[in-house]
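Design request, tokens follow.
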């Protein structure tokens, strides 16, 4: 089982001032949907308003076979994200969030040995959510599970010292951290993967996957370090690229339910992660398509 905790919202995407598409979004939601479409069981812990947008999101989650009994419905409007694409498909965001001040009391079923927890992005660095995230992380760790954290720290993110401290605490909860070069430059001023890995190690995580868009992927582990090229593709948009990289990685980890030291495993896992991310970058979707059943 994969336990994903994070925001749910509706994405409205614009290019050259014109709205070009709209779809469900949120970093953990994007990962959860792609995993479920590849037959990986996912329980999603999130908050949705009791409005028409929220109804649409909940219907979408259920139609994608996401286990949604841990979704909290609050009295209010569902969050929105406006994404403005530049000529390279890179997005700047404006968020409209209306969640209540008090965090939800999520339904948390028994966690099984080898379960995976994915958390990150804006939701994970809001102080109101830290207790829920820490409680879930402790359950997963107690059952020899795998914790994966994606800071997803954009240049517009709040970089007050207390927020950076919370990100560092989240890194300390994780076994694997996956982040982009921009994430770590914005967070810690790290100018390369080696600098970022030193920060991650100091915070308590042992593995870093450092992505650099078309310039490749760097893997840092206690056993070896390795660089991976990525294929050239025609980029439509980069929304969901990192989220689906995470999904591809988890797709492979879920098969074995542990963190191996074997280089061949990581070669396959990073390869699968790149495939997931590339598919999304070449489309206007936030998640991979359903597999061809023919």
């Amino acid at each position: 089982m994969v336990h994903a905790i994070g925001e749910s919202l509706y994405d409205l995407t614009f290019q050259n001032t014109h709205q070009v598409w709209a779809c469900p979004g949120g970093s953990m939601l994007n990962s959860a949907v792609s995993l479920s479409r590849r037959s990986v069981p996912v329980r999603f812990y999130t908050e949705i308003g009791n409005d028409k947008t929220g109804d649409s999101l909940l219907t979408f989650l259920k139609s994608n076979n996401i286990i949604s009994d841990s979704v909290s419905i609050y009295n209010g409007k569902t969050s929105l994200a406006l994404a403005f694409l530049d000529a390279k498909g890179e997005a700047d965001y404006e968020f409209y969030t209306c969640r209540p001040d008090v965090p939800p009391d999520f339904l948390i079923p028994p966690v099984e040995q080898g379960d995976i927890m994915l958390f990150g992005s804006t939701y994970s660095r809001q102080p109101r959510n830290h207790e829920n995230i820490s409680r879930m992380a402790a359950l997963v760790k107690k059952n020899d599970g795998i914790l994966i954290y994606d800071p997803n720290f954009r240049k517009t993110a709040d970089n007050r010292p207390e927020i950076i401290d919370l990100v560092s605490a989240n890194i300390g909860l994780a076994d694997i951290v996956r982040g982009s070069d921009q994430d770590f430059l914005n967070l810690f001023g790290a100018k390369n993967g080696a600098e970022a890995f030193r920060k991650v190690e100091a915070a308590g995580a042992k593995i870093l996957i450092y992505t650099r868009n078309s310039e490749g992927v760097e893997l840092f582990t206690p056993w070896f370090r390795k660089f991976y090229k990525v294929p050239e593709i025609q980029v439509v948009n980069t929304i969901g690229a990192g989220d689906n990289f995470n999904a591809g990685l988890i797709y492979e980890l879920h098969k074995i339910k542990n963190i191996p030291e074997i280089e061949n495993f990581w070669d396959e896992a990073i390869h699968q992660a790149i495939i997931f991310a590339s598919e999304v970058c070449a489309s206007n979707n936030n998640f991979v398509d359903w597999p061809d059943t023919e």
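Comment from the thread starter after seeing the answer: thanks! The mean pLDDT is 93.
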